[in-house]
Amino acid sequence: MDLHSDLHKQRIDLVAFLGALCLFLSTVEYLFPKPIPFMRLGLANLPILVSLHLLPFPYLMLLTLVKVAGQGLINGTLASYVFIFSVAGSYSSVLVMYAVSRISGRFLSLVGVSLVGSLTSNAVQVLLSIYFIFGKNAVMIAPLFLGIGTVSGLLIGLIAEGFVERSRWHAKLRRLYAQE
After folding, report:
1. Transmembrane residues, as ranges (predicted)?
2. What CATH number does domain 3-178 carry, 3.40.50.300, 1.10.1760.20, 1.10.357.10, 3.10.129.10?
């Protein structure tokens, strides 16, 4: 087996592991009451956030697909507007977090990246709710939605930043993938 295919297999294995972790965290989060229908704290985004500097873009997109499809299956929302909101929010968030993390380098911590991702996801979901479900009345929940998103984005970012700073496992993977 050549080095390229071995690295691909390792990354696919990592996506599978992180995807399972996303689903576990999503299940745990499902136990918490939701302040607003379809509002989530974002625990399932932790594995995506900590893998921003581990996985190339296509693997992050695959991990996001595993996360949103798994959440849809777990929560029973796969054939609903909630799933569409989840897909739109998750992919827009990952796209922005990936871009911001690459552009800012080390000038912006995972806390900032998480905050930008959370606000992007929430803004996209508010816009979808305005245009497709609730109309202009959805603007009334936007401040609460964005406020909760800000707090949860900061908390998820702090957890991710602390993990990345202290984790030997993460540091080992960064060294391994930097050698490619």
Report:
1. 12-32, 44-66, 78-100, 107-134, 140-164
2. 1.10.1760.20
